[in-house]
Amino acid sequence: MKTFELAKKYNNWVIDKRRYFHQYPEESFKEFKTTKMIKEELKKIGIKIIGTSKTGVIGILKGGKEGKVVALRADIDALSVEEKTGVTYSSKIKGVMHACGHDCHIAMLLGAAKVLFNMKDYIKGTVKFIFQPAEEIAQGAKFMIENGALENPKVDCIYGMHIWTYEEHGKMVIEEGSIMGSGDIWTINIKGKSCHGSEPWKGSDALSCGASIIEKLNTIAGKMNDVRHPIVINIGTIKAGERFNIVAGEAEITGMNRTFTNYERENLPKTMEKIIKNICEVYNCEYEFKYEFICSPMINDSNSTKIAKDAVAKVIGIENITGMEKVMGSEDFSEYIKYVPGAIIHLGAYNKDKKCFYPHHSNYFNVDEDVLKIGVASYAQIALDFLNK
Ligand SMILES: [Zn+2]
Ligand SMILES: [Zn+2]
Prior knowledge:
Elements: H1 2-9, H2 11-23, H3 32-45, E1 48-52, E2 57-62, E3 65-75, H4 102-118, E4 124-132, H5 140-146, E5 157-168, E6 172-173, E7 177-180, E8 183-191, E9 195-196, H6 206-224, E10 231-240, E11 246-247, E12 250-259, H7 262-282, E13 286-295, E14 298-300, H8 302-316, E15 321-322, H9 334-337, E16 342-350, H10 372-388
Parallel strand pairs: 3-4, 3-5, 5-16, 6-15
Antiparallel strand pairs: 1-2, 2-4, 6-16, 7-14, 8-12, 8-13, 9-11, 10-12
Helix pairs in contact: 1-10, 2-4, 3-4, 4-10, 6-7, 8-10
The structure holds zinc ion (2 copies).
């Protein structure tokens, strides 16, 4: 129970830090002051800084004994959201807000660094503290990996934590396997032939072609995909046509796909292209299909999840750990999982009495700060248990 006792001791310090970061939010890849502040705090704690780039920073703590390397990750960016909570520590930056709770992640990981520093002689191995920028645009994890976050020393296992207003305060949500969706974006450009609206047979109608494509794409999820593995194809925009009496010569459709498995993720663009190609042929149109793989599904490794579950049970008791209802939204922590085993867990922060019940990214979003100590202790306990077992 030592980690929780220490976390409780640092509780006010962690809440202070969270409120500071909350007041000065910075958007993705603009986390300059945040990075500077994290570095200063890490130095004060006694954590060595080994990796730093324009934004984001990595701290390292070597334990008293040789051993494996565990990484703990916190994302640090905020959103372009205007805060309306009215709390005393509201954002001082107009139009920018920590509306996803990443301010809490920074404070909790700094708290965990304090706890683990305090216990360092007892640690068998090394802890890496990864403060990652730009999660909200799903580019930060990739950026940190490209900058060597998982090397020197090589990471054996990585853990992340996300504060979660969809679960009651005091609970931790831990689930192995696929828990969050992938997120990939695409654009279809259709090129037909414009002509007078009274003589459509003389042209190629890109607009009607696009409409047919949309209709067919909407049947993939129910008719062509194994429905036991849910997918979402969201058609977000269509732009076509100039005037009511002109046949549209061009059309552009954009959208985003979500899947829970890599198999569906890789197959979707192939199925889509088959449809696009055939319908374009019928309409005598040409097409260009651009597909960008952005974020893979978040799949928690079974063994890493078990270690996390046992560790968190030491902090809050097994009765306070719940399973997770899958979320179709994405989390770029999945990038790390491509290279090393690991898991991300979710810390319940919903509290009706404290009005902490708004969804993430809402301008009324807030969390029950009393749970931060659970996050701090859990981060630390997971690292200890992974290294010392
Ligand atoms: Zn978010
Ligand atoms: Zn988030």
